[in-house]
Amino acid sequence: MPEGEYDLLRLENQLCFPLYVCAKEVVGKYRPLLDALGITYTQYIAMMVLWERRSVRAKELGEMLFLDSGTLTPMLKKMEAKGYVTRSRDPGDERSLIVAATDEGMALREKAKEVPYRVGSCIPLSPEDALALQGILGRMMASFRAERSPSPMLLPVS
Which fold has domain 39-146? Predict the structure, then answer.
């Protein structure tokens, strides 16, 4: 086989590799800041949703953060043990679990407000490049989210 057939297997030709490295490195920039707050990155992004909405169905939170219940449930239990969230059944639908930020969880927002600025100052991108990258990644996420959405059931035509 000619050598060119394997060009797509070269590390430098992969899109996934630079995404992986950059994601790992950026999340690593958060670690010392979030350690000081006593939360993980995943707990931080969950709290971001709750700071904005105060409460949300657990299933919706998982969908927003691209987390399955096997990851989400233990994380929420830990956050509840720290006093940052409560979990309760939706009175209108006992199958639904509502996750709500406690007053202590909402107070954490004040302590976290400098985190985006401090991390942003460590990332070597111009504001224009950062916005362009955020737009591209946002479109990718929307596409992945659409792939995960259940498609409407098709009924056979008689």
Answer: Arc Repressor Mutant, subunit A (1.10.10)
Dump strand ranges (E) for 5-145: 55-57, 85-90, 93-101
Cα–Cα dist 141/136, whole Å: 9
Question: What tokens appear for 146 in the block?
Answer: 């659409």
| pLDDT-derived band at 9, boundaries 50, 70, 90 | very high
- 3-state class of 102 per DSSP? coil
- What angle is formed at CA 84 by the lines to CA 134 and CA 55, rounded to 5 degrees? 65
DSSP 3-state of 128: helix
pLDDT, mean of residues 133-157: 80
The packing angle between helices 41-53 and 69-81, to 10°, is: 80
Q: Which of 63, 53, 64, 55 is nearest to 87 (CA)?
A: 55
Give the residue, 28 or 91, on which the prediction is more confident. Answer: 28
Residue 88 pLDDT class (50, 70, 90 cuts): very high
d(CA 43, CA 27): 12
Q: Which two tokens stand for residue 7?
A: 């060009």
Locate the domains of the chain by residue range. 39-146
